[in-house]
């Protein structure tokens, strides 16, 4: 399905500011759909003004839908949808008198002109209406209609106020997109406030949330700001956002914590005809969500501490091996221990990086650069080889980083010690599904009868085990054009990256 941006760019005359306003509207119009118990379709004039194209659609979570199929991308000519044409031409909300039965169920149709405001002026607290951008078609399925309750009447009145704000260019709020990962929705809990910030209606879920915070009495008639401030009373200064949100004076979000309960609040000031008539406050109990987040933070901290201790232990082992190597008089034994020190050191580098990472993912470029620098120290002074990296590894999970660091250490160490090159490059190419790494040098090259499968080199055996066995990748060695050796690793990337 094409996106709003795709349709707007290819079929309409919306400019960048208009498209941004439409994105803001669509990101938050679930609120209007739920309060209206209705489907919403956003129509924008075609570039040649010959008709309309549906660029976005929203179904309600509070009632039955009218459109079971997607209508995004549908084009209608001028004159086919009279309510849309009228709302656009007369710049007003239009309502049809009788239900439409053409789809087999009674549907009430309304259209709301969409107007944007001057964003710069809105950020200064001023409202300067801008141009009209399109029309929202609001379709309500009346097949399940019944005598409305107080909740439904409050929802519908709030939807009417919000629709008027859309027509006046006052909704969505400029620069005030929902800031939290999961903002409260209508069904989570809703409070309606008057101009003074007093509660005129509280949904059952909203009442339950405040009872868990410690409010025993009814909320209707109470000043929500004062009630909320008393519930979260402490020696610390009251959060300014809390009072602004709880009184409905600003389009913001905040959280209230009391008696081990955490409640998320979102305020939507209702401004119609240039005056503030009240506000909606959406409420969601996020106690369990915050508890799980704290558990995850504790778990992450524990994992980072484990990585830190593993790194310390590995560095201790490397130091002991280094001391032992200095005491050995047999060159072969000393060389073997020094190789072990470098292998342990490469693993320690990964664990050190993971100990600072908020998740089990690391920027492997930093690890690779440290491993490359460490391999350069192995070369004899007269060789003066300075390994270099070309390309970026990017972010990798710890399960890939550890074996890859060890494999890279072995390849660089082998190239420096046995190839005696003047140039050594690590060339990286990352695609969406795989990571390709080439380690090339201009050294002695491979023996004429070299065979990877029958090679007795411990370093290559380690690399093969790591790349093929642990990383499910491919390993190949070939003569480099112009002399030397080129080793290629191809490693599949996890689907989560």
Automatic annotation (TrEMBL):
Keywords on record: Kinase, Transferase, Two-component regulatory system
E.C. number: 2.7.13.3
GO BP terms in the entry: phosphorelay signal transduction system
First and last residue of the signal peptide: none
Domain of life per record: Bacteria
Catalyzed chemical reaction(s): ATP + protein L-histidine = ADP + protein N-phospho-L-histidine
Record-linked Gene3D superfamilies: GAF domain (3.30.450.280), Histidine kinase-like ATPase, C-terminal domain (3.30.565.10), PAS domain (3.30.450.20)
GO molecular function: protein histidine kinase activity
Enzyme class: transferase
Residue span, Histidine kinase domain: 404-495
InterPro entries according to UniProt: H_kinase_PdtaS_GAF_sf, HATPase_C_sf, HATPase_dom, His_kinase_dom, PAS-like_dom_sf, PAS_4, PdtaS_GAF, Sig_transdc_His_kin-like_C
Name of the protein this chain belongs to: histidine kinase
Organism for this UniProt entry: Sinosporangium siamense
